[in-house]
Amino acid sequence: MEQYILLIIFIVLGYLFGSIPFGYIISKSKKIDITKQGSGNIGATNVSRVLGFKYAFLVGALDILKAVLPIYIASRYITNEWYMALVAISPIIGHIFSVWLNFKGGKAISTIFASIIWIIGWKYALILLLVWIVALRTIKIMSLTNLIIIWFIPLLFWFQTHSFAYLTISLFYILIVYWTHRENIQRLKKGTEKKIIKS
Questions:
Q1: pLDDT tens by residue, 36-55
Q2: Of 7, 165, 174, 198, which has fewest CB within 10 angstroms of its CB?
């Protein structure tokens, strides 16, 4: 089968996988509509505020898994880096614009992390996660931590892959994160953004 046909198939598959709203599903299982609680976001951060860390961890892990799976499957059939870059983006778009939630969704941090695992390997991704945890413990504001850490991704992608395709999507990730955090940025400017870790 031609690579471009496979590309279309895996982009659609990636989008549909990414659209699965685990935060919404898990909160609904607890008789809570997460879209009407806290920030209204379906991601792990809002789940942690409403349901606690245990459920937030589960949501984060499932959001990573739903993005890793289509990328991994596609990598068995597609060799073109630019095509794989597009496949890597598709679960992220699905997460932000979920077809199951009237094209609303989360802020894509977990799904972006999934592509980071695949592109630079789990060892370097684990190091990045540890850096993120230390930064979060220091800064104490989830959104600000995400907005800072995302700038390191292009450097990591370039030094690990020397691929212009992956460098390009890493720059796209910065745009995505700043767009999905636009309300948080306004609150940061006003000094009203809530801390996720108390001083």
A1: 887 788 988 889 888 988 99
A2: 198
